[in-house]
Specification:
By secondary structure, the protein is mainly α. It has helices at 2-15, 19-24, 26-49, 60-79, 84-99, 111-136.
C-alpha cells in the first residue's frame, strides 16, 4: 500500500507544479491515475475473494483515488476540451466510480463476482484510455 500512497502523493505533487510543466506531463500523469485506479480495483477484488469487509469509515481509501482522478480530469479538460484521451480517461474514471459506489459491496455474498465484472469493465476502459493517449503522443 505504501507504493500506492507514494504514487498518489506524486500525482498530487506533480499537479501543483507550474502549469507549463503540468501540461507537458499530462500523458504521464493520466497514465499514473489509470494505474492507481487499476491497483485499487485489484485490491478490492482480493479483499472480496478473501471475504474481507472494509468498514464504511475506511472506504475513503477507495474513493480518494476517484476524487483525485476527477479533479485531474477537470483541470486538463479546461486546457484541452474535446481531447479524445480525456474522454477515454473519463470513461475509465466512471467505470471505477461504479466499482466503488457502494461501500457495502464487500459484505455481499456475490462480492467477488460483482467486483470482478466491474474490474473487467474498468480494465477495458483503461486500455482504451491508454490507446488514446498513445495515439496523441
Amino acid at each position: 500500500m505504501d507504493r500506492r500512497r507514494f504514487l498518489l502523493a506524486s500525482v498530487v505533487g506533480a499537479a501543483s507544479v507550474g502549469s507549463g510543466c503540468y501540461w507537458q506531463r499530462y500523458p504521464k500523469l493520466a497514465r499514473t491515475h489509470l494505474g492507481l485506479l487499476s491497483d485499487f480495483a485489484t485490491k478490492l477484488l482480493r479483499l472480496a475473494e478473501d471475504h474481507v469487509v472494509v468498514p464504511a469509515e475506511r472506504w475513503g481509501e477507495y474513493t480518494y483515488p476517484l476524487d483525485r482522478a476527477r479533479e485531474f480530469s477537470r483541470i486538463v479538460a479546461s486546457r484541452w476540451p474535446g481531447r479524445a484521451s480525456i474522454a477515454a480517461f473519463d470513461a475509465a474514471v466512471a467505470a471505477y466510480a461504479e466499482l466503488v459506489a457502494d461501500p457495502t459491496v464487500l459484505a455481499r455474498e456475490d462480492a467477488a463476482t460483482r467486483i470482478e465484472r466491474g474490474r473487467e469493465r474498468l480494465e477495458l476502459r483503461i486500455a482504451e484510455a491508454r490507446a488514446a493517449l498513445d495515439a496523441e503522443d
